[in-house]
Amino acid sequence: MKLVADFIEANLDVLVRRFAEAARRLESTQGLKASEVISTLPEYLHAVAGICRHGATPERLETRARLEEAHINLRLRVGATQEDATDEYTLLGRLIPQLWQDVQPERRPGAAGLQCLFQQLEEAMDHVVVLFSGYSFEDRQREKRFLRQMDALAPRWLEPRADPQGPLKPLVERVVRALEATGAELFLVDADGRRMTPVAHTGPLEPPAGRSVDSQGPSFLGRVARSEEPLVLAQARGLEDSLREGLHAPGWSTLLGLRLWPHGELMGVLCVGFAEARPVPPQTKRFLETLVEYLSGILDRALLMGQLREANARLEASETRYRLASQAAADTVWDWNLLTGEVAWSGETRRMLGFAPEETGTTADWWVSRIHPEDRERVERGIHAAIGGTQARWQDEYRFFDRQGDVVRVLDSGVILRDAQGRGVRMVGAMQDITSRWQAENGHEQLLHEAQLARLQADTKLSQLHALLRQAPVALAILRGPAHVVALANDRICQLWGRPAEQVLGRPVLEALPEVEGQGIRELLDGVRATGRPYVGYELHVRLARAPGGVMEDAYFNLIYQPLSTAEVGMEGILAVASEVTEVVRARQRAEGLAATLQVSEERLRLALDAVDMGSWDIEPATGRATWDARFRAMLGLPAEGELTLEEAMRFVHEEDRHQVEQAMAEASRPGGSGEYASEFRVRPPQGGQPVRWISGRGHFHFGPDGRPVRFVGTGLDVTERKLAEEAARQRAEFEQYLVGIVSHDLRNPLSAILLGTTSLLRRDDLNERAMKAVLRIQAAAERAVRMIRDLLDFTQARLGGGLPVHCQDLELNALVRQGVEEVQITVPERVLQTSLPATAIRGCWDPDRVTQVLTNLLGNALKYSPEDTPVSVRLREEPGGVLLEVHNAGAPIAPDLLPRIFQPMQRGEPGMDPATRSVGLGLYIVRTIVQAHGGTIDVTSTPEAGTTFTVRLARN
């Protein structure tokens, strides 16, 4: 070790110089003086040499520690990190060995000397960690001891359905002891990744059962689940119920919580409690992070091993069932290697077809040669199409020659296994002799054919009706007042009700349709009017007479009842949107009735459901056992394989719809009822990030002799797209299109009367000043309403008529713009309007009234949204192929989130505007429509520095 000391002292200057040069390239030393880079390095190297020469006495160790602390504190003051400081000691450890590469071997330090040197540098780096983090060597040893204890207590596996309190409680108690806490509780998330339930706790008192907490809620545990760092709650006593949701913390004053987050996903939360109110130091938080990270790994490994054990058990049970079923079944099982072409047949081939295993042949050619000639081409073409496509199953019914040459009618089914690229690599199937069953069913073949034909016709008619409904206008009516008087209606209402217009318009609904009294229509309308909530109903059943004195018949309608309020649209009532789907419902009912009488064709109906992308189920209500086909499992988010009871499947139904589904099943299964079940509900797939889907379920309960339900079968259809389309149509369809135009026409006549009256009053000489001002205010308000109605009528024309009509004529645009600005100036004499027009006349073919409307709308908008002491400028100039009209104001900029939709209807500027300047938010929409009708474009720019500029480009037609 003396050689190390001698070498350091002999090369001290070289070491210091090389260290300074190398350290200068480190980011942490940028901007430091040379003395600050070197710091205490010469004295430190003398101290290290002394320890290596004379041994580690307390005095020398104290000197070395003092020099290290002075250097580390300097690095702390200049903002260096812990890694920066340890990098410098690592650099020093590389520089010293580099110097003795050229030294003679006999003068190089030995292993003992190198060990002494590197030990001093490692202890210096430990000193860095202690000073930067306050985490000492004793703390690390204590941490390692507790981690080893947790490792010894870790369970090898955790069964998914077993109570985890037993194996996990010792681990939680070890964390409590390590942190010197009062107690702790461990929560794990359930399958949906949202609710957290307690799985282990400490303490003598048994906590109440049934607790859970929302990981996205406002409680302390919910906040911990969303935080990357440990959270502290200094005062846990007396918490509000919302904050202590899920907690069982008797006697805990301070709470410390941290989430379990393996693989970047929430596993759960560990909450530790302390009896006394106390601050939690950083060392404790860091220790908790280490313990929780280790605990996460233990639980992740144990849960994975538990799932693996369960999967192995299920696989073993499945293989056992398959082996026993193969031995007991009468089917012939075959296994086809699609890559090599080899086919293996089970021993049942001898019993069913008479062929010994060695007689069946090793390829598919033998099987194809035994198929009846009339069926051969169809079967061969179908199975190869299935293999070459993407489907997972193939099935066909055909005739097959046995060993004696007799015809055997078989049902052959196969499952196709595919590789990662979707290519079929293996096919396993079973051939069943259905000759006897076919002969028994042959008499019903015609009935089955008729059922299939009826189903096809019903589906075709359903598709045709859907197409017609999408293309044809819906029926509209506005029902005014508490009596629901039909104030406005289109011809479609009269067609749907089978009434002449004079029997519908201006009459209450129950007077126009007296036969629907007692069918719930009046109660439904009263509920919509009283609550103010819209009603959306599909296939609403009503009995009505299509002709006066005619017979009552069943009719089905899709209905939307939207409440209207005076504050929003100027009238009180209900907007009714209706379309008739009677033929669709009757077609489906006929198809379902035929299907119910043909129980022997369940397998074929199941294949038909697959063809129309519908899923099916078959449930035993008494036991809860259920069979779900693959399509319904995929729609509901159920596991692709394995047994699943009705109760387990209901967990996949959205929690807000679960009660509705259960209530519908309870009503359908009520003894003496119809047994018909229908419900539309949402499902939440268990995989995170996937959207919620809507399912339309329809089913039927079959009852035994005692009146109890014995079987529940039904189908499900994914109606997500329909729901989305209906929601979009409900929000905007009639309010923006039909209603605006109707209201606008109704308001024009009274406003015209108001303007005529005010004009007559203003001509009188006996009006005093006060009366004159009142009449002028009325006139201004009426004129503003007229402008609003004009905008509404233009909007209706643009939306329903495909655009605004323009009547172009040859005109001089300079004069038109000048005249428009002068007219606006008269109405606002206090404002400054600046006009910049070209010296030469600009002529072209435009609609003068519509162009003037564009200019006045843009000027009114600029005046409204700019300070009164700022000017508004109008600029007209030519450009290649057209003209450019710009309107600029210096007001506050348009909000960035409003800019993309500024030209959309029903958009207004900033809130808080003068009520006298309010509009319906259609001005800029109409401006854009007029400009587009001229083949032009309009743009807007708005910044705090440059103000707001609307730019209109018109082609010179």
Supply database-style keywords.
Globin-like, Beta-Lactamase, extended, 7 domains, five-stranded antiparallel sheet, 957 residues, 31 helices, alpha+beta, single chain
Short account of what is shown:
By secondary structure, the chain is of the alpha+beta class. Helices cover 46% and strands 21% of the residues.
List the helices and strands and how they pair.
Elements: H1 2-10, H2 12-23, H3 34-38, H4 41-54, H5 58-77, H6 82-99, H7 111-133, H8 137-153, H9 165-179, E1 183-189, E2 195-201, E3 213-214, H10 220-225, E4 231-233, E5 254-260, E6 268-274, H11 282-328, E7 332-337, E8 343-345, H12 348-353, H13 364-370, H14 373-388, E9 393-401, E10 407-418, E11 424-433, H15 435-441, H16 445-471, E12 475-480, E13 485-489, H17 491-497, H18 509-512, H19 521-531, E14 535-545, E15 552-564, H20 566-569, E16 573-580, H21 582-596, H22 602-611, E17 614-619, E18 626-628, H23 630-636, H24 646-649, H25 658-668, E19 676-683, E20 693-703, E21 709-718, H26 720-736, H27 738-762, H28 769-800, E22 809-812, H29 813-827, E23 833-836, E24 843-846, H30 848-864, E25 872-879, E26 882-889, H31 923-933, E27 937-943, E28 947-955
Parallel strand pairs: 23-25
Antiparallel strand pairs: 1-2, 1-6, 2-3, 4-5, 5-6, 7-8, 7-11, 9-10, 10-11, 12-13, 12-16, 14-15, 15-16, 17-18, 17-21, 19-20, 20-21, 22-24, 25-26, 26-28, 27-28
Helix pairs in contact: 1-4, 2-6, 4-5, 4-7, 5-7, 6-7, 8-9, 8-11, 16-21, 27-28, 28-31, 29-30, 30-31
Catalytic activity: ATP + protein L-histidine = ADP + protein N-phospho-L-histidine
Organism: Corallococcus macrosporus
Domain PAS: 318-390, 601-672
